[in-house]
Amino acid sequence: MTEVVAALIWDEDKFMICQRPAHKARGLLWEFVGGKVEKGETGPRALVRECREELDVEINVGDIFMQTVHEYPDITIRLTLYNAAISAGTPKLIEHNDIKWITPAQIDSYTFCPADEEILKKIKG
């Protein structure tokens, strides 16, 4: 099983979602910023690294919002979503195709990676 971490970053009543690049698995689907935990990394440390690499921002990692396990045809992941806040920088499109800030009411207007479905239900309440 592959350990994956992601960030739930809020700005008032909106949270950040990122669109995967077209050439990657699950291309053009929406997701939370994050990625794989590398050997020897903690979840929070991996998330700080991923946000730096993918968005060029520094974040403060909070508590765990939710964990879920999802089996894709090519990979099984354990996804840990952390509450997080940007502490420095403005998100840049380094890795992703697009970035949006949406409200929970707008979730159904976007097509997300299947691993995020349970998380999105919790955010919608």
Give the topology.
Layout: E1 2-11, E2 14-19, E3 30-31, E4 34-36, H1 43-55, E5 58-71, E6 76-88, E7 98-102, H2 117-124
Parallel strand pairs: 1-6
Antiparallel strand pairs: 1-2, 1-4, 2-3, 2-7, 5-6
Would you summarize the structure shown here?
With 125 residues, this protein is of the alpha+beta class. It has 2 helices and 7 strands, in the order E-E-E-E-H-E-E-E-H.
What's the total count of β strands? Answer: 7
Proportion in β-strands: 35-45%
CATH class bucket: Alpha Beta
Report the CATH superfamily. Nucleoside Triphosphate Pyrophosphohydrolase
Low-confidence stretches are none
Describe the structure.
It is a single chain. This protein has 125 residues and is α+β, with helices and mostly antiparallel strands. It has a single domain, classed as Nucleoside Triphosphate Pyrophosphohydrolase, CATH 3.90.79.10. It is 17% helix and 42% strand. The protein contains two helices and seven strands. The protein has helices at 43-55, 117-124; strands at residues 2-11, 14-19, 30-31, 34-36, 58-71, 76-88, 98-102. Strands 1, 2, 3, 4, 5, 6 and 7 form a seven-stranded mixed beta sheet that branches. A hairpin with a 2-residue loop joins strand 1 (2-11) and strand 2 (14-19). The protein is globular, with a radius of gyration of 13 Å. The chain starts with a strand and ends with a helix.
What descriptors fit this protein?
single chain, globular, alpha+beta, 7 strands, 125 residues, seven-stranded mixed β-sheet, Nucleoside Triphosphate Pyrophosphohydrolase
